[in-house]
């Protein structure tokens, strides 16, 4: 079921593609910022110490409390400076009202030289409304990270324009195949079946384009970032 979900859910697929091998290289104490239900914890290598962090109102995002997650008000992280050897922040930045203050806090709790793995969506529907505030370009991400004490910033596109089209078609197909009333279903169900077939073809086309290195990257599904806390980071 996980493999099927990764095949169809292109946002998830492109996150896992970058995140899993990157997390395998982490060592020491790792902070999972915006941890939710800790879906990435299993990617940590043996010997890493996991610490989750999320906002106190995480239930508004559909999350249930966990013992390995610390909860805070979203301003000052409840950890001393330089407490962590690495951090991940996966699909969280778009929900942060003040990214400048947030990244300053991330830099503060990391040791000098510690890696940060971060992903953000670009082409994505509004989600967890009303807590969806931003879409970041690669240029904006680079400037934000550099301004708040990060260096060696490597930004990669997640997916391509073929994936964006496939993703939109899947969303449309699901909506058309679940009409709110039977009257609408008379026309939306047959059309939805056609859209679903086209969406599956585009999903296959996306995976082929990824293998071949084809497709345009000016309109990706999102971005994946690797950066390191600079030795002279400002807190």
From TrEMBL:
Top-rank taxon: Bacteria
Keyword ATP-binding: no
Database matches in SUPFAM superfamilies: S-adenosyl-L-methionine-dependent methyltransferases
InterPro entries associated with the record: SAM-dependent_MTases_sf (IPR029063)
UniProt entry keywords in alphabetical sequence: Membrane, Methyltransferase, Transferase, Transmembrane, Transmembrane helix
TM stretches of this protein: 185-208
EC number: 2.1.1.-
Pfam families: Methyltransf_23
GO molecular function: methyltransferase activity
Protein name: Class I SAM-dependent methyltransferase
């Amino acid at each position: 079921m996980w493999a099927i979900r990764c095949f169809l859910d292109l946002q998830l697929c492109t996150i896992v593609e970058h995140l899993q091998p990157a997390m395998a290289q982490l060592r020491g104490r790792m902070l999972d910022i915006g941890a939710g239900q800790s879906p990435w914890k299993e990617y940590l290598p043996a010997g890493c110490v996991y610490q989750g962090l999320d906002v106190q109102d995480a239930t508004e995002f559909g999350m249930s409390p966990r013992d390995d997650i610390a909860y805070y008000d979203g301003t000052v992280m409840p950890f001393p400076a330089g407490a962590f050897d690495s951090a991940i922040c996966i699909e969280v930045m778009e929900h942060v009202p003040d990214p400048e203050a947030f990244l300053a806090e991330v830099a503060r709790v990391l040791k000098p030289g510690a890696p940060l793995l971060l992903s953000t969506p670009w082409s994505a529907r509004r989600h967890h409304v009303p807590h969806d505030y931003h879409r970041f370009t690669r240029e904006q991400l680079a400037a934000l990270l550099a301004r708040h004490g990060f260096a060696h910033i490597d930004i990669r596109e997640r997916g391509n324009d073929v994936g964006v089209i496939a993703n939109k078609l899947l969303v449309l197909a699901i909506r058309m195949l679940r009409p709110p009333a039977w009257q609408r279903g008379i026309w939306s169900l047959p059309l939805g079946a056609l859209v679903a077939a086209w969406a599956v073809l585009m999903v296959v086309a996306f995976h082929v384009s990824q293998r071949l290195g084809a497709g345009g990257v000016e309109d990706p599904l999102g971005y994946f970032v690797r950066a390191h806390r600079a030795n002279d980071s400002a807190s």
